[in-house]
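Look over both lines:
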Amino acid sequence: MKASPADIDRTRGLEERTERKQASVYDNVTRQFDKAADLVKLDPNIRKILAMTTNEIIVNFPVKMDDGRIEMFTGYRVQHNSALGPFKGGLRFHPAVDIDEVRALATWMTWKSAITNIPFGGAKGGIQLDPFKYSYSELERITRRFTFALGNNIGPEYDIPAPDVNTTPQIMAWILDTYLSTMPPHERQRCTHVVTGKPIESGGSLGRDKATGQGVVFTIEEWAKDNGFELRGATYTVQGFGNVGSWAARLMNQHGSKLIAVEDVSGAISNPDGIDPDDAVEYASKNKGLISGYPKAKPIDRKTLLQTQADIFIPAALENQITADTAPLLKVKLVAEGANGPTDPDGDRVLQQRGIDVIPDILCNAGGVIVSYFEWLQNKRSEFWELEEVDCKLHKKIVSAYARVRDTAKKFNTDWRTAAYIVALSCLERVYKERGIFP
């Protein structure tokens, strides 16, 4: 029996796409890094350090399938930088996972931690596979064997994984149990923070499920305040209806904003009169996680979704969705990046020329790592915070980070993505200058 929607979150939509990358994701990171480093005149020696990853782990491991066959899998864990604290970043299960992508994602995690002022470094990992081709028990064995193969390359004070594309709290629970099983009995209760995004019963935090989408909406709220824009009655479209996209849609709906088009791996739908996000999520949960066939909207193609006239566009899918080819199609005031790397540098240039505001990914979607930090703290302290406390602390972190990026953009007269990089690079530069380099 294949894994059910309850076991793996199939509402992740475009996050599940296997389309070929249009450009090297890491090349995009490098171009963005170089632009900011040049503008802020980053110390050349520190620039050398931050331009490289610390460790890159590739593991090939066998797993027995339900029918007795042995399959080989390739897993990755890239640790970019730990100057601010333990390595931190998600794990994704996707056919397109490769070292280039994971390297880029790990680097972005370093910048996110620095921008939001949390004591983590950056890492990312994943397995190259389509999780929907495997049964529940096969996915469990794959996850556990990958965890074992990583060995001491992860740890509660060293490198802390979390959910990402096609990985869920259940998968985090398997990682936790496998890791604890390798520890001496007297150490196990002190190691539950080896992974975040866990089920509540296994030490997870309230609010972690919606954290990334919540962070997206908090940044949109701040943008609206800065621009005198009324969210009630505003229209928005969402690309990718997974964890991030669906939560962002639902939370925007609470402001009285109107979802008029959405896309996932099964296609796109539109209704100018509005789509109820909660109803769409409920429909998808009964339709193998897909929105195709949703009866209260009409099907449209991807190009039509991008051309839909709206106030806000929330890309919450995979990388390189907004390029020099697709950026001219957008008819919005704001792009709020729920996904990692949805806009390549050429797409950025077009958006800037057209006067479309962008809240960059390393600020906009940082809610996930912030609440992962809260979960990590709760585990370390043997505490359990109520949802109101989590949301309040998250809001404070996001608003502070937003203000830092906004002020930096004004100071350097630059775009918000470059400003976000400058905030991160300046923070890390100060740390390295204070601590020095051993020996």
